[in-house]
């Protein structure tokens, strides 16, 4: 059975970033960001990270070799969208039981599951994921996948990323290694051209890459493979023939970008499609790279014309929001590429950034934040829930942008909150996405519900000075008057008749 130890060590020894290149051999093996201790994988395990990178490949059958709980907890945990096949939304698992583990039936059950998926759905490929249970009992998924591929005549790809080996980020990189070892370069495209590019680390959350792709189409640039957002298996298999690449999330797939450059000479740069300025800069960088690889230099002029047109439209739409949002204080509790790209985007409209989390950011991400904010005091590695609640409840910020795990802290503190992570329902990439982000922030901050929930509850009401209870003399006079009324005798029947006459 293949051990993932060597592959994990190779992933840790990542020379892709400039900071890492300057380290000695021992320090370089720690990677750009220190991995979490196995068993303390906060934010997701390695299996979860591998599933995040690979599941958006839409026409592939994703088979989890594990008890059903592993697949149940990881299924559909991202808001990635597909314009084609929905096979990736199906949940496939071998559903191992205690009896299967004790009797050693795991590998046979896996082979049968591959056979059933092939007959029922005929996918172009099947990805098989190992998990903690199947790795611990020693099931050799690579041998099973190899035998199944030979028998059924389709790629069966082993994803050796059991959860206990480390964090979600490590799983992201191990998924990239699986694509390099078993998928990319296995199909030769018949239509390769000088304007083909790859986009790496883009997950098409809420369909936001669909706001960017039309811009590339207008420039005549074809996305050979978007890994993994809205991807197809054959697109990824032929991704080695692209002329350039853009890396969106270096924390996740820097190893994939670097090794594709080494093996097939595909230059890459790290950019972002969040914010007007960053989107424009990304388009410029793409145009420069394809020209350097043989494309017509005229594309640079056409890119500048497109940028001027789209920026004018976007800024015109944002004019109405600036007076409503300028000076508003925002806390960004996220990580990775969003830790700096969202910051830059919001500062463009006058929003004040109180702080941004850099927990999942690379060294390069942190350097970008320092350049943008001009103050390291606005960066925080992590913030305890109590500290976060105190900041929000004291109204030191006007809105918090974060993922779903901290939304209830904001709601308890009666502070506007907007989802910026994978669970969101609105796309924020590109020029139109920036306008949508600003619109959602405006709606959240100016929602009238916040004025109502910040009012004291009836049982918390404190009377004002004018509404204070009467003094002792007034209480005595009121008591005497009440007693006088009570002691009066009711009128007799005859008296009542007399009054009637």
Automatic annotation (TrEMBL):
Coiled coil: none annotated. Pfam families: Oxidored_nitro. Keywords: Nitrogen fixation. Pathway: Cofactor biosynthesis; Fe-Mo cofactor biosynthesis. Residues 45-443 form the Nitrogenase/oxidoreductase component domain. It comes from the Bacteria. InterPro entries: Nase/OxRdtase_comp1 (IPR000510), Nase_comp1_CS (IPR000318), NifE (IPR005973), NifE-like (IPR049939). Belongs to the NifD/NifK/NifE/NifN family. This protein may play a role in the biosynthesis of the prosthetic group of nitrogenase (FeMo cofactor). This is Nitrogenase iron-molybdenum cofactor biosynthesis protein NifE. The gene is nifE.
